[in-house]
């Protein structure tokens, strides 16, 4: 079963989750559903509160289906050791359309239970270390934006954009849901449908692409540029 992703603003994302105490078939099914929901949303990590279930449970697959061995279940995870510093843009399925650089420890040791309740410990660096921290934060009711400057956080809070929907994106990391498409789609949307849409070009050193964003209702124009909302 694919669960819808709970979005920023829902209180379940900002309260500490309850420990997982029963490792039964229902939990296995939930874990399977979480992987499915995560892949559907094009994510590499998903915590149970993000599907509205306040349990200390998260799934991670930073290879996005490429390596079945990379599928990780984190039940009742604890960060036991961290080292160094690393800054990378970070996003969250619950805060779509935003990515912000976040400085976190580079190397992280986590202790968690697997789907059968067996404890394990893993030390990983960079992307996976970041996923450990990001997902554990979720289970403590903390979102990644708590690690960025108050100014930027405020901008994100004020400009939550449920009224804007990404319709098509090419090469854009921040677009979710990512409907792979190309320029003609953008042109079609503007010309044939005459909808109030905009194309945002972006370039961030590594890649170039575009997002087509449908403006469905009351986009607050004026105080922010679309680019600043989006990237
Ligand atoms: Zn997240």
Question: Which secondary structure elements does this structure contain, and how are they paired or packed?
Answer:
Layout (H helix, E strand, L loop, with lengths): L24 H16 L4 E3 L9 E4 L11 E12 L2 E7 L2 E10 L2 E7 L5 E7 H14 L10 H9 L5 E7 L12 H9 L5 E7 L4 E8 L10 H5 L1
Antiparallel strand pairs: 1-2, 2-3, 3-6, 4-5, 6-7, 8-10, 9-10
Bound molecules: zinc ion.
The site of zinc ion has 5 residues, from helix 2.
Give a description of the structure.
The protein has two domains: 142 residues, Alpha-Beta Complex (Peptide Deformylase); 69 residues, no CATH class. The two termini are 31 Å apart. With 231 residues, it is an alpha+beta fold. It has a five-stranded antiparallel β-sheet, sandwiched between helices. A three-stranded antiparallel β-sheet has the order 8-10-9. The protein has a two-stranded antiparallel ribbon with strand order 4-5. It has five helices and ten strands; from the N terminus they run H-E-E-E-E-E-E-E-H-H-E-H-E-E-H. The longest helix has 16 residues. Zinc ion binds next to helix 2.
């Amino acid at each position: 079963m694919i669960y819808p992703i709970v979005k920023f603003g829902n209180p379940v994302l900002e309260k500490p989750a309850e420990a997982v105490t029963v490792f039964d078939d229902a939990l296995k099914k939930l874990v399977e559903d979480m992987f499915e929901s995560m892949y559907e949303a094009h994510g590499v990590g998903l915590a149970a509160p993000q599907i509205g279930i306040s349990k200390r449970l998260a799934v991670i697959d930073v290879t996005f289906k490429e390596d079945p061995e990379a599928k990780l279940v984190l039940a009742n995870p604890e960060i036991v050791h961290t080292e160094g510093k690393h800054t990378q843009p970070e996003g969250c399925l619950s805060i779509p359309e935003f990515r912000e650089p976040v400085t976190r420890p580079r190397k992280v040791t986590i202790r968690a239970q697997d789907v059968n309740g067996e404890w394990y410990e893993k030390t990983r660096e960079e992307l996976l270390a970041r996923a450990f921290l990001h997902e554990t934060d979720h289970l403590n009711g903390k979102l990644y934006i708590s690690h960025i400057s108050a100014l930027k956080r405020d901008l994100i809070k004020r400009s939550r954009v449920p009224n804007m929907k990404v319709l098509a994106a090419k090469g854009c990391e921040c677009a979710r849901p990512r409907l792979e498409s190309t320029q003609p789609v953008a042109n079609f949307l503007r010309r044939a449908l005459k909808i109030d849409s905009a194309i945002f070009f972006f370039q961030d050193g590594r890649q170039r692409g575009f997002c087509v964003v449908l403006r469905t209702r009351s986009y607050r124009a004026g105080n922010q540029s679309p680019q600043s909302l989006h990237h």
